[in-house]
Amino acid sequence: MTELPVDKALVEGRVPDRSPEQIPELHEVGCPDELRERIETLMGRYPDRKSASIPALWAVQRLYGWCTPEGIRQAAAVMRVTPAYLESVASFYDLLHTSPVGTHKVAVCTNISCWMRGGDELLEAFRAAAGEDDQFFVTGFECLGACDIAPMASIDERYFGPLEAAEARTAIEQLRAGSEVLPEKALEKRPLPGGPDA
Amino acid sequence: MPETRMLLKNAEDPRLRTLDGYKGYGGYASLEKAYREMEADEVLKELEDSGLRGRGGAGFAMGKKASFLPRGEMNKYLCCNADESEPGAFKDRELMQRNPHQLIEGIAIAALAAGAGHAFIFIRGEYDSQADILDAAVAEAYEAGYLGRDICGSRCDLELVVHRGAGAYICGEETALLDALEGKRGNPRLKPPFPAVQGLYGGPTLINNVETLSNVPHIVRNGAEWFKGFGTEQSPGTKVVSVSGCVRRPGNYEVELGTPTRELIMDLAGGPREGREVKAFYPGGSSSPVLKAEEGLDLPYSFEAMAEAGSMLGSGSIIVADDQVSIPHMALRTARFYHHESCGKCTPCREGTNWTVKMLERVVRGEATPMDLDIVASVQENIIGHCLCVLGDSMAMPVGAMVRKFRDEFEDVIAAASEGEPAVAERIAVAQGAAETLGAAT
Question: Interface pTM (ipTM) of the complex?
């Protein structure tokens, strides 16, 4: 009979090569004052400070462009939680990025209503217009809650639609030039479809 | 038939976003009346008598839900669910963007009825400009003494925080919303205990949708009897209906509940484009079982009529598919959404959405046999009722209905795709290209 492999941990006991992750100390992480103060204010808004974890990660992302490991350690030190805890939260949500992304974020809705009206083609047009330029982060996205302006895109967190595929290039060029993006297609300027009150 | 605007009244006026503009139209009179002249129980009774049903999806009576909270001095919470992420739904966005104070007033009154001292608006992270509008409006309301300490000399306090989510459909599920608000991953909790007993931070919690709470000031101002004068007996009031998809004028239309669905789709939203016909529609967002045009167009748009037809009113969002839309591809698109948004906590949903997507991909690639359609249908049956929350059911119900009602079309697509018919092959390329979306838990 062949011997089964033996789990060393059972025979010899586990010897962790390092202690479990600790909450980092503030002086170890070099947290900018501005970020620390922001997170402290956020924690003060809630009966339980942990409620501030999503807002704190937003603050980290605003400062560094994405949720960097250093940024997460800084937020963890301020909040007195482990970095792993904040990483587990950040990795759950679509809008929090745990890897580098471009400074301009374009999310094109490809869900049912936008798909029916050309959302996939619009996404392709944005991808083609942005090309290899890594200042742009172009991605397909699930329903953004703007089916009335389908097909639409969220460009740097503002909604635009209905968009023609050709307008993708215009938008990308306007972002490159730092000018206002598709002003006539902004959601805010849209009247109610049924017109003013009867 | 024109719209019946209650919640969207004066919404075209940009000044409505400001406190002065809102007060100019009589705003905050209900809050003053409730806090100055009414007891909490009176407010609660008015809400119960009005028969107002939740506008977020489940349609549960709002007053009844509030009455489930235990009485007495303790930390109680109110959460406004503004995580509108259901495909096809965009009414809460409109309400928050155009009339934020109506919502704040509704929250303050509901908090009085429920005895809550802390309230939160959980708004989806994508609604960035709407969150900014809410932030500004909340600051104004604090300034005017409609929020904060000793509101209108009533010795009642209310803190209101606008909390931005970060992109997860599941956070619209009430217990997942609570977890997200507590700073965790948004996983649903096992129920019971229901949030009314054990919710946010373990305290009794009332959770209501934006549109539900926006109705509250109108009910308190005009009374339950007045409110019941709109809509049907079982579905009182008006409804802001989001109509989208293959119609000429997609958008939000506010109508009395019970308005014929045909009027909403064909008259208000303008119907399908010239030469096209309505084939089917989702009556209440992507989670509702699709109705064929002939079974659905002549139904009154109410909770009870949609339930009777085997579907649901849900969040009140109609997505119209015309005769050019391929139902199998629409089923795949729907399934992919739920697959992406499944939190992964419980097995039937995590595995069921995954396998449904894989099987539907085989259908549109022409690799399936008609027998596989039976398997797709049986997977849906095994999801329904077996999950911690309704996300799995929300895929199983529409996909199951599509396979059942349009089986011929599924079989045609399988046959055509396996013979390499170009029109279908083109659609497949589109369907495959769409797989890349931001990944959450699964």
Answer: 0.92
